[in-house]
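Section 5.1 Outputs to date
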Amino acid sequence: MQEVPRTEAVRRRPTSITLIAAIGMLLGFLSLLMAISMAIARLEVSASEVSQLNQLFHSYGYDVTFTPSEFSYYSLVMAVTLGAGAVVFIALSVGLLRLKKWALYGSAVMMGITAYVFLLYVLEIGPIFLIPLIVDLVLLWLLLSHRSIFRRAQTASHPLGAS
């Protein structure tokens, strides 16, 4: 069987896709570091530190009080959640670099979820989260504006009639 030659237009990945993948990799590795730190914090937190954390929550107007065991449990939940998110971010970034269609859809869903979360932060905490919200929406628009690149890459890697 002969391999169908790929055109230069299909082989070239737009700079914006590379940028989005790089940001996704960075977020993935940061999430992984945060997961590790949450797991470590779970093991090393003292009752006085939990008390200070409770005071911090109260100073921001949140009516939340953790016991040390509750903090340990929530830290474990956060560590697992952040670790899973890290794996997803890294996998989607690698898929984007390889111009895989599943990575396009997965990244669009992740960006939509993060845009929604940033919007909630803007409404709940304040306008400081407008910057990441706008950046997220711009990156989502850039990603979706390159949908045809993913279609052509998929077509070139799986030509009709090939088995």
